[in-house]
Known about the structure:
Blueprint: H1 4-15, H2 26-31, H3 37-40, H4 52-55, H5 57-69, E1 74-76, H6 84-87, H7 96-114, E2 122-127, H8 142-159, E3 163-169, H9 172-189, E4 195-199
Parallel strand pairs: 1-2, 2-3, 3-4
Helix pairs in contact: 5-7, 7-8, 8-9
Amino acid sequence: MTTPSERRQALDDILEQRVLVLDGAMGTMLQQRNLTAADFGGPVLEGCNESLNRTRPDVVLDIHRAYLAAGSDAIETNTFNCDSISLRDYGLENDVRELNVTAAKLARQAADEFWTAEKPRFVIGSMGPTTKSITVVGGVTFPELVEVYYQRAKGLLDGGVDILAAETCNDTRAVKAALVAIERLRAERGTPIPTMVSGTIETIG
């Protein structure tokens, strides 16, 4: 079992020398498993990949391990839509913390299994753009989005991730909301929080 300080030092050392190799998509790997409604926790939850962190942790762990065995330096948690806005579609909006913590612990378990001094492995907390957007589709305010990102990021950090990633962002104000939330957590915890942002350009501009 690694400690946060060990991982932070190892991450700093590696980034001084080279880029990290990340894993691939979680969703397509899950689709290949031909999961049934029962795997997700029932027909109402079918298609909610985040529910699998509770109902089929073995499947999620297998995917993490496959990417690590292929040589990934870092793996992302199964939490792309693990926020109160997206989970509301499945009636799971009150389970944000539990699902994020659980997902982070699963990824942490897999990463620690493959960790060696020669090749450390890291966990990235995946935070997708939610199903709302201040600019593109509306339906959410900036303060609301900050709180959404804060809750999910807090759960991911409590579960043991090394890096937070606001990914597939299609709205710069959503990026700002994520960064404001992460800064709030950094101030509360008094420690740096490695952060990544990836964006996507919509065809509508």
